[in-house]
Design goal:
Elements lengths: L1 H11 L3 H23 L4 H7 L9 H21 L2 H5 L8 H17 L4 H15 L31 H14 L3 H6 L5 E3 L5 E5 L12 E4 L5 H14 L28 H15 L12 E3 L8 E3 H11 L6 H6 L7
Antiparallel strand pairs: 1-2, 2-3, 4-5
Helix pairs in contact: 2-4, 2-7, 4-7, 6-7, 8-11, 11-12
């Protein structure tokens, strides 16, 4: 039976489809094992003990890494011969052979011009499958804010109409909601604060926030009229989802639309972050404690930020790391 199974596998490896299935199944199997091991273990704790290299903690990471491995498997099925695959063995045991193959793939990714961020993502995913550090692979191109090629650097979503772009720009730049939060947010999340301003009181589990963290985020509309328009949409929804409209319910042009699949709200969240920052930031020259000033580097050199204001913005965005605004959102200050 074992001999028959080996013969069957060798026969399958002679076709691109067979090679794709062979490589992909090995990688997905390894990732699922690591997810099972990492379930319920906090990433921070695993990093401190050094165990994180072998663990996956969330469904989203499992899904994303599986996709990256599938891209690698597809490349292998076209560029690698059956004879080469036959001698490789299991991805979790014969890591040396797979590392060499992955290095060839990463070099290919560099040569065809994939962005440095995509290269780094692929490297992290492939390293996780093997259970090794990404330093075992060749160096990919350095990542900088200037060489980002994702939707964040665009002014609008080219897959959406101008009308839809205007609508979601107004919503997200005023609320800072992620896509998953837009889908699950309910009207009763809109609440008045003690200062009389409108806020979103987001329940981590109910509204599907990142890390299921609760947060209290200010509404940052550009005018009184825009704020009233937004508040009215939330209040009409009541305890129901705001942006989940039944097909048979006819509403006005700009009333509670359904969240489009094509929507990429990152750039609008960056604008929300800028609005929050400017509303709370102190004048840099008047900050006496220089430890409370952040000096940005690289293409943002010359820009200094109020550290306390950055923490407030990061919290409003729903991030856990206090440095997230300077690192991932401050680029928008350069455009103003």
């Amino acid at each position: 039976m074992k001999k028959h199974a080996i013969e069957k596998q060798n026969k399958a490896l002679k076709t691109p489809e067979g090679r794709l299935q062979f490589v992909n199944s090995q990688g997905v199997s390894s990732l699922k094992k690591r997810f099972k091991k990492g379930k319920g273990i906090k990433r921070k704790e695993a990093k401190e003990t050094g165990d994180d290299i072998e663990l996956i903690h969330t469904h989203r990471t499992l899904h994303n890494y599986s996709g990256s491995w599938h891209c690698f498997a597809k490349w292998v099925s076209i560029h690698i011969s059956p004879e080469q695959l036959m001698v490789l063995g299991n991805v979790e045991k014969d890591t040396e052979g797979w590392i060499e193959l992955i290095n060839q793939y990463l070099q290919y990714c560099i040569e065809i011009g994939l962005s440095p961020y995509t290269q780094a993502t692929y490297k992290a995913a492939l390293a996780k499958v093997l259970g090794v550090s990404s330093t075992n692979f060749i160096a990919t191109q350095p990542r900088t804010r200037a060489n980002r090629m994702n939707n964040r650097v665009l002014h609008t979503d080219y897959r959406l109409s101008n009308k839809n772009n205007d609508y979601w720009h107004k919503v997200v730049a005023s609320t800072g909601l992620r896509k998953s939060e837009l889908i699950h947010v309910t009207g009763d999340a809109m609440q008045r604060g003690r200062d009389g301003r409108w806020y979103l009181n987001l329940d981590g589990h109910k509204h599907h926030t990142k890390g299921r963290r609760d947060r209290w985020s200010p509404i940052m509309a550009t005018s009184q009229e825009e704020e009233e328009w937004l508040v009215a949409i939330f209040q009409r929804a009541g305890e129901k989802r705001v942006f989940h409209v039944p097909k048979d319910l006819i509403l006005d042009d700009f009333d509670g639309k359904k969240v489009p699949t094509a929507l990429k709200p990152h750039k609008y969240r960056a604008e929300y972050a800028e609005r929050v920052y400017r509303s709370v930031a102190r004048e840099i020259s008047k900050i006496r404690n220089r430890k409370e000033v952040i000096h940005l580097r690289k293409e943002l050199v010359g820009i200094s930020l109020d550290r306390k204001a950055c923490k407030i913005v990061t919290k409003a965005l729903g991030h856990n790391r206090p440095e997230e605004f300077p690192r991932s959102y401050a680029y928008i200050l350069l455009k103003r």
